[in-house]
Amino acid sequence: MKRLSGRTAIVTGGASGIGRAIARRFAAEGAHVVIADVTTTVREGGEPTHELLAREGLAAEFVATDVADESQADAVVRHVVARHGRLDILVNDAATGVGKPLIETSLAEWNRVLAVNLTGVFLMSRAAVRQMLTQEPVGETRGRIVNISSQHGMIAAPEDIAYGTSKSGVVYITRQIAADYAKDGIVCNAVAPGKILTGKTGRAVEPRWLAYSEARTPMPRLGRPDDVASAALFLASDEASYMTGVNLLVDGGWMAA
What we know:
Layout: E1 8-12, H1 17-28, E2 32-37, H2 49-55, E3 60-64, H3 70-84, E4 89-92, H4 107-132, E5 143-148, H5 161-181, E6 186-193, H6 207-216, H7 225-236, E7 247-250
Parallel strand pairs: 1-2, 1-4, 2-3, 4-5, 5-6, 6-7
Helix pairs in contact: 1-7, 3-4, 4-5
């Protein structure tokens, strides 16, 4: 029996990077995966995620979704329920950043990062929890939320104030949802990646930031998207039976050093 057999999962930001790896892992474990993203373009290159999964004989579909838009966040949850009868898992992975310190960050840039990275988690989680509360439990849970936070939600994100602030909010909202809805059988946890090489270009792979990340990471390599996908799968599965409100570090020891 696959770990997510018969479950339906929404993965926001599932077109590329960490979200793509999570979507692939969940589908391989038996879930019907709905990729909610603003694009089907794979940032690191390759076939669109939902098409790749379909070609592999796995259950997946794409629903164009801007998680920062209330109507679109509500609509993707309604779509899943209309087609599948329930929503078992929500992964909030969609995120953006501007890579600028305080005095160089415009209000528009600040607002957009917070809208996607934090308000998007709020809107998607609200829509998901509203639905999950109406569902009969499967085992002990009515539904699970897995948020993708960051070690930079706990320590400074160098020269990226909007991103770090947004991820700090993701750490907090994870605990709040967990505490408020545990009694209803809704589980909410987060995965906090360290430096993950996702195929991003630009600032993410500038030599100075790679050197900084390598110096901060005790393990002899930087992270891969599959490292985060493995942790997300665990938190989305019945194996995580007595965990909620956890911010699980997948950082090669970054925060331990």
